[in-house]
Amino acid sequence: MLQMKGIRKAFGPVQVLHGVNLEVQAGEVHALLGENGAGKSTMMKILCGIIGADDGVIEIDGKARHFAHYDEAIAAGVGIVFQEFSLIPYLTAVENIFLAREKKTRFGLLDRKAMRARAKEVLDKLGVEVSLDKPVAELSVAEQQFVEIAKALSLDARILVLDEPTATLTPSEVEYLFKVMRELRSQGVAIVFISHHLEEIFEICDRITVLRDGEYVGTRRVGDIDTNELVEMMVGRRIESNFPPKPEARPQARVVIDAQTIQLHKAGPFSSFQLRQGEILGFAGLVGSGRTETALSIMGAYPAVRVNVEINGDATTPRNPSEALARGIGLLPESRKEQGLITSFSIMQNVSVNNYGKYRKMGAFLDLAAERKHTVKAINDVRVKAPGPDAPCDTLSGGNQQKVVIARWLNHHTPILIFDEPTRGIDVGAKAEIYQLMRELTEEGYSIIMISSELPEITGLADRVCVFRSGAVVATLEGAAINSEEIMKHATTGKLNYVA
């Protein structure tokens, strides 16, 4: 159904795509893989007419096509669901699905009845139930994802691009999305699926095309390749292990956070745990188990009912993130683009944003030379790959954006770091770099709380693991007890403690 042949694209002097090929059949889920910066998104934007190619041919059903803008791609049956949702939160699902192409009555008024009927028809075809009349801001992330897919399918899309559609979904929601994808595949829709979760590729996809540094590496059937071969195609080398070796247990290490009582909700259970110097303490549990809320309550960023915490022996609990920062706690939040970075700012501005006080001289003036010197050191320490400290953060890959946030806290000298889903949306090569960096930080004396929904990440990297259920820690595991079976046992049946 789709052929892209010899696609080339340059932005200024930088060649992004070097004659890349892609072939997708009708009724196929085709994975498009590669590290961040490999050219996947650029390739899909060219397919959808969002940007133009410098050279190459796009054929749909054997006919050469050139799309000057997105509307022309839509008319040809191409739909895309971007990683960042393009929904207007205060409009309903129906209004979002028909945005900018509303159906009208013969008197020029909105034909809401016809739009609602068509929206329901498309969602019924997907086999999903979504409230059509609620603002999409009130829908779950999974429901918003299905509204995005319905929007594309309402355009009669025969070629559907899904860019990281599972990044914010729970496992049960992912399974439901896969059910929808299988149904679309049976209807003859050609699906291009982009994901960094390799286990998903082997579960849902038929074939795989790999790009590396803007070059076409090859196309393979899923049954003809294993994970190690696939990773080698993506990164150009074999990664024997994602995780650096764990150090020996140090039970006598100094306690930097002693959480004696954290109660998130009135009449709810309470948590207690300790974070030691030089360790990675994993926070594991099902979605909604209270992992992130507990970590944020330590920083005064979540209104817990009770927080009795000692930080480096001081029993005064931070009342807000500013006080937590002053006490040496830095946060790498789950959403780096919305909460961790000002993406339109440069690397240097993001690294310095909490530190301008130390660069001030002569009143309102800044010591720019000192700022640049410290920024260059921080980004070199965490190995940010960028043209220089003045590069805008929105031009960086996901892994390098994460490193910029880490560089900010190193520049601020925060010895306690909370990493919330540190590798979400990051490719396999960048994950290994982040893991290595985290281990190096603990060897230098930093202490890390790592919140993660990926069990292999928890078991492979954490020195000890706090397992959460219903808003509280129900078990703390170490040594051989850190395994997926033990974690899931406690996450589903762990005993809860209540304040007397």
Give the domain tally: 2
Q: How would you characterize the largest beta sheet?
A: 6 strands, mixed
CATH topology of the largest domain: Rossmann fold
Give a count of the beta strands, DSSP E runs of length 2 or more.
21
Determine the number of helices (DSSP H or I, runs of at least 4 residues).
18
Strand content: 15-25%
Structural class: alpha/beta
Strand order of the largest sheet: 6-7-8-3-9-10
Average predicted confidence as pLDDT: 89
Task: Tell me the CATH superfamily of the largest domain.
Answer: P-loop containing nucleotide triphosphate hydrolases
How big is the Rg? Answer: 24 Å
Oligomer: single chain
Distance between the termini: 66 Å
Global outline: globular
Low-confidence stretches: none
At the first level of CATH, the class of the largest domain is Alpha Beta
Fraction of residues in H or I helices: 25-40%
Query: From the coordinates shown, what is the CATH architecture of the largest domain?
Result: 3-Layer(aba) Sandwich
GO molecular function, one term: ATP hydrolysis activity
Membrane topology: Peripheral membrane protein
Organism: Sagittula marina
InterPro entries: AAA+_ATPase (IPR003593), ABC_carbohydrate_import_ATPase (IPR050107), ABC_transporter-like_ATP-bd (IPR003439), ABC_transporter-like_CS (IPR017871), P-loop_NTPase (IPR027417)
